[in-house]
Amino acid sequence: xxxxxxxxxxxxxxxxxxxxxxxxxxxxxxxxxxxxxxxxxxxxxxxxxxxxxxxxxxxxxxxxxxxxxxxxxxxxxxxxxxxxxxxxxxxxxxxxxxxxxxxxxxxxxxxxxxxxxxxxxxxxxxxxxxxxxxxxxxxxxxxxxxxxxxxxxxxxxxxxxxxxxxxxxxxxxxxxxxxxxxxxxxxxxxxxxxxxxxxxxxxxxxxxxxxxxxxxxxxxxxxxxxxxxxxxxxxxxxxxxxxxxxxxxxxxxxxxxxxxxxxxxxxxxxxxxxxxxxxxxxxxxxxxxxxxxxxxxxxxxxxxxxxxxxxxxxxxxxxxxxxxxxxxxxxxxxxxxxxxxxxxxxxxxxxxxxxx
Length: 356
Known about the structure:
Elements: H1 10-39, H2 47-54, H3 61-95, H4 108-123, E1 128-130, E2 136-138, H5 141-163, H6 170-193, H7 197-206, H8 216-235, H9 237-244, H10 247-252, H11 257-279, H12 285-297, H13 301-326, H14 334-352
Antiparallel strand pairs: 1-2
Helix pairs in contact: 1-2, 1-3, 1-13, 2-3, 3-8, 3-11, 3-12, 3-13, 4-5, 4-6, 4-11, 5-6, 5-11, 8-11, 12-13, 13-14
């Protein structure tokens, strides 16, 4: 591809135009899915009423309460959480140069869950209670989030330290993540062993990822963290493209690989910790969506990062809606559906032994 004549080649314009069109189409599909998801549920709401309520046009009080107090916060929580988990997985796979990198497979999700449980049980920073409706509340989510973040940062630091050892391979990094996941799971089980019946029931229920737990205030915190991190990941797209070519090549192009890797892992851990602390463990989204997006739009991170954001939002929103409808009036935790979908893909990747 040559630019010697000062003109952008037509082939490159088509390359960028097709990917841009695909991204815009995906965002439109996400908006349509959001309206449909809000309309579906135990109480069916016509699409025109949903659109009217979202535009603050006159609707019945019942419809307004259902949409603004129940379904819209849950749907937006699914969108934001899906975006955060998938963009974190994309960044980790690039930083570690490992297709199996994700907050779940590297044990960071388990570490965040342990940190949250430790805060609740040992630091007194939060108390998990079960309400009459079966919901689980965390009375001090900010301390719980902080503890989850510190635990996930510890796990990420161990993985980064091992990745910098001479001769460390992607397989070793994944195995380290598996070991860390088992270690933090054992720690969580240790805390559960000494919990009373109510605390134990609440802790076990809390580990089921559920977007219905997020209120508007919690959704605001998650959104700020996800947006700030996503902006950084988008701004680092060229750096990740260079790292894909190898550390030495990236350094030759002026990329400060160690700094990019450290900041990326810290932000990915922060996003994961925040989402898990508020919503519980939602696995496999950070692993599956980046691979789907990469197959669809390629490995250029200028397009892969936004595609992962939109794809993660779309996948978790559809999964959350399906979880609400499958066993109605009972609501299935969305993490169950993501695990059912993600586990076969994970096995497929292991069997194929894909290498980027």
